[in-house]
């Protein structure tokens, strides 16, 4: 049996890099005409996936999108992005796209994976998750003209703009299409629910400062509770044991809160385990654990977020106008804990 012809085989025959072959197949406008012709001749001579290659050169589209599988975490909040991936796959199929999954431990490992994937597969674009301050992944892709959309807004200057006027980002320099959930609105809704129930000293358990999502969730609590009082807030890494310790600390102060708003269901599960009767607890993400424990929690519209990501990226690939960012409202699911 003849050896399988790959992009590497074509690259060696045309005396170019694998990335150049990938560019000819996916983004031919980035490659000089002379080089494009040499690569196309190599494809024809070697018979490299003749039908697929011909279709790609004709349409410039593979209808293949790549997205990362998140690293394993505590099994509670890690399920959130698992649900997003299910929604993404379900939304992509009717639109004519397939999803390619990959793993990476951090930003630099993910960028290395981009480089490898672009040299090996004919990708149309990427869906990025877990955006954060100093996120270098978006600039890497943008500098190379690779289409992408993010589930999560760009943080920093652009992220600050997005909190108040998301549509203003659509024409901003360095902007890109994104979909996010209004995290501040979620904790604000939980806090209002507790105020309506008669609570006046409402504590907050969240993550250390500097997390875009975590800071937004704290901001929603602070603005609605009326004051961001240091004695009523605790910051810790995510986890059930950490939530338990933070709640125990808050409930031990001289004038303790009568309710706790938590930035995640993991923290809320820990807090709920040590909260005495009468102390209300709310979580965030409405995970299966929240449902089992009876935790009031903020639910993210993950299926809608996934569908909007597909819509925005498809719009970019179709050459439409710069898409407006999408900021989706969450909803509060009320249960026995609050």
Overview in brief:
With 338 residues, the protein is an alpha/beta fold. Helix content is 46%, strand content 15%. The longest helix is centred in the C-terminal third of the chain and has 16 residues, at 302-317.
The secondary-structure class comes to alpha/beta
For the largest beta-sheet, the strand count, sense and barrel status come to: 6 strands, parallel
Number of helices: 14
- State which percent range the strand residues make up: 15-25%
The average pLDDT score comes to: 85
Shape: elongated
Protein name: Substrate-binding domain-containing protein
Organism: Phytohabitans maris
Pfam families: LacI (PF00356), Peripla_BP_3 (PF13377)
Keywords: DNA-binding, Transcription, Transcription regulation
Descriptive overview:
It is a single chain. With 338 residues, the protein is α/β, with parallel strands linked by helices. It folds into 3 domains: 7-59, no CATH class; 64-180 and 301-329, 3-Layer(aba) Sandwich (Rossmann fold); 183-299, Response regulator (Rossmann fold, 3-Layer(aba) Sandwich), CATH 3.40.50. It contains 14 helices and 12 strands. The protein has helices at residues 7-14, 18-26, 33-46, 50-59, 78-92, 107-120, 136-143, 157-164, 183-196, 212-225, 240-250, 265-274, 288-293, 302-317; strands at residues 64-69, 98-103, 125-129, 148-151, 178-181, 202-206, 233-235, 259-262, 280-284, 296-299, 326-328, 331-333. The chain has a 6-stranded parallel sheet, with helices on both faces. Helix 7 (136-143) links the parallel strand 3 and strand 4 (148-151). The longest helix has 16 residues, at 302-317.
